[in-house]
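Retro notes
What went well: the complex prediction finally ran end to end.
Inputs used:
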Amino acid sequence: MNYSPASALARGFSSFTKMGKKYGVEWWILVAGAVIVLGIVFMAAFPDIFTTFNPYDQAAGPQLAPPGGEHLMGTDNLRRDVWARIVFGSQTILRVSVLAAIISSLIGISMGLLSGFSGGILDRILSLIMDSVYVFPGLILAIAFAAMFGPGVINITLAVSVIYIPTYFRLVRGQTLSIKQELYIEAARAIGASSSTILREYIFPNVIATTVVVFTLNVADAIMIEAALTYLGLGLPPSVVDWGMDLAMGKKFLPSGQWWLITFPGIMISLLALGFTMLGEGLAEILNPRLLER
Amino acid sequence: MNNTILDIQDLKVEFPINIGTVRAVDGVSLKLNQGEVMGLVGESGCGKSTLGFSILRLLRPPGRIASGRILYHGRDIVSMDEKEVLKLRGRRIAMIFQDPLTSLNPLFSIGRQFVETLQTHEKGINKKQAILQAESMLESLGISKERLQEFPHQMSGGMRQRIMIGMGLILNPDLLIADEPTTSLDVIVEAQFLDLLADLCRQYNLTIILITHNLGNVAQLADRITVMYGGTLAEVGLSGDIFHTPLHPYTQGLLASIPNIKLDQPELSPMEGSPPDLVNPPTGCVFHPRCPQVMDICTRQRPPAFQKNGHQVSCWLYR
Amino acid sequence: MRHLAKYIITRTLLTIPMVLILLSIVFLVLRIMPGDPVSSMLGGHAPEKVIEQKKEELGLNEPMAVQYVSYLWQVAHLDLGESMVFKQRVTTAIADKLPATIELTACGMIITLILGVFLGAYAADRRRQVQDSMIRLYGIVIYCIPVYWLGLMLQLIFGIWLDVMPIAGRTGPRVFASTFEQTGFYLIDTLLIRDFAALKDVMIHLTLPAFTLGLTLSGIFIRLTRANMLDVLKADYIIAAEARGIRHSRIVYRHALKNAFIPILTMMGLQVALLMAGAILTETTFSWPGMGRLLLERIYLRDYPTIQGVIIVFALIVAGVSLVVDIIYAMIDPRIRY
């Protein structure tokens, strides 16, 4: 075997296209989603590569200059560079949405496991509460929490994370219940496996695969909710660079035709949400072979 | 005398899938005479249902007829345009399915489904006439006409299957394709249903293709039997001949694997191996990997149909 | 029919715990969360005595359990209290704004249903063909476009660049709602007095917001319809109907669609939640004087009783819609009733 980097790369590439053949369109959706997400994550991690302007610099250029020349996406009413605000704004939205998804998945999964595994009255009560929250419009809940918590990055993260807990809870509880009835669990119990062993060895690994898909789609949704809250003027102090807040500010200049102020932040929010959605869709089809029949 | 109703000539059906092409039916030729009951038997996945579906051009995409002809009263169904096929379906050739519960639309009343069928084919028939016709059909099947207002889930399996057949026969077709019609029924209802089928066959001068994996069914009803294996015909012959002097090793294996009180069997011997992979079928005879009497030629060349003792058998043993 | 009545009664009773839980959550969020409504309303510098007096007035000094019970008691009497900012019953403020929101959501829902169900069914029928891929792509992309941004872009294109549509409000400057307002549903009001010029004006103002809302949710409905149609089209009764010679289009759009619609309907309760979330955002974009705007205005003013009242009304709508949806479901599907 030859282990030169070139051949490893070639092997990697050939297995990459092989996956494409095996899974068809879904694989390319996954790849496209991953490229978008990684691109924006890279931008958030190394903003200085992408722009030399400071997003707070209120003398970056002339006031409300249209895109072109030195200012790729123009400038806003406070003479700030729009592209620089896009680049640095990616940090805020990524941080809030990913962190919110992590918080709600941790809480939702553990409550779902607990509820599904223990059963009984606890399960009944938790399910009833979660179901009620689940049908309630998430945005309104997030608005209420954001209004109560007041502005701040941590506060908006918590407000966003609250609305996804029932999603994970329902998913994990449902799966736990169905796995619990499988014969191999009975068998494991019969040979004396403890509850925690069963939870750890059998139920958790089964639950995790679907959770990955839901997590990705959840981040996509959280992105839109985060931007919605800040667009409504909730959740973040004005000192933070954020796409949703830029959108709300740009809205004021829409009647006078300064289109670039709303167009670019909106495209970025959509693109980031699209990236995570495509990633989730691709994963869903590939992790769940039953769907491949379609 | 030309009383051939259906003449299938070298039919090939393919299902292109991700990893290749499934050759579900691979070069089948078969003739049906007016008024006979043809039993089509084989393991699941051998292509018998696909063959039935292709007669009405009901293959689900991506399945398609790759080549061959299906002559119905001398007219080729394969090359017909869609409109003509629509006129054949239900009117000239009827088909009934395995599970009568799932073959009736759960949201439409029985009556509505009858009326729709009648009005599709008989222009100018009004709803009242259609209902009357449906009522008399139900009564001839021993079902009270009040049932027309009911929904499929309100009936027993046997009754639903009778309704399915009533819906099939209400337009007086001359060919009925029955795809495992009794699989979902219990044994007593099954026997009653097969009796009904035999009656109807005589009454309407029906030709029936009875697709089944249950050799008991065919023995009771069929005039001739076709045994399919791996998308090809293994053996065709008169019902009694197939049962008493099976020639093809596959037919012999199939008979040995079912319990039968009439035959004096020392013991049951289930067949070894599993049905062939139809994406990459074995070379030569598709049965050779499982055949107890496999010869050298079987692995290389596909056997044509040989005539032997009135059977048509695709096996090199009878060359 | 007797079965149906029984079903409706049981289902209605089952709604009660759900409403109770939603009400409790609203109570919890607004009372137990950090931040003191009174001091934040009066500003940080209000003297202690004034704050105490106001608290006493609002019953905020009672034990939490007492507050909770009297809160439930009030809501049960459809009494949502009085605004802390204006001399106005909360119910009056809501009754004033609710029709605008319902009008917007209903029109959005109709657009979503027509677009989503038709395109989804068509895509399922053309599975794996070009049309299917295009529709699926549209579905994914439209789902990822935030409703508020879509509204802004439609405003930019149709309101500013093409200048054919108004971008704000329910009526134009020359149409006075006070001349026809009776029910608050302007489409109905203008029809009632047969003022067709006003009707046209109302419809033009409704078009962009309703399409914004409708387009956004159409992606979800396309996806739902397509998935359900694919399942239904695999069903035996579809092929059995084909075998009886029934026309393909009739099978797809009558037989299959009716069956596929049942699971779509059961999802409708959840979609209404999304629709209302979308409405709040759309109202902000289009300066639409509805519940969403009321909620946000009062959040800025820290008018807690009104905020609470608006959220309660949303909760009641959600519970009511899911109840109605389940009842319609039972009426469509004969298998449920028995």
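What we learned: Chain A has one domain: 34-292.
What to try next: split runs per interface for comparison.
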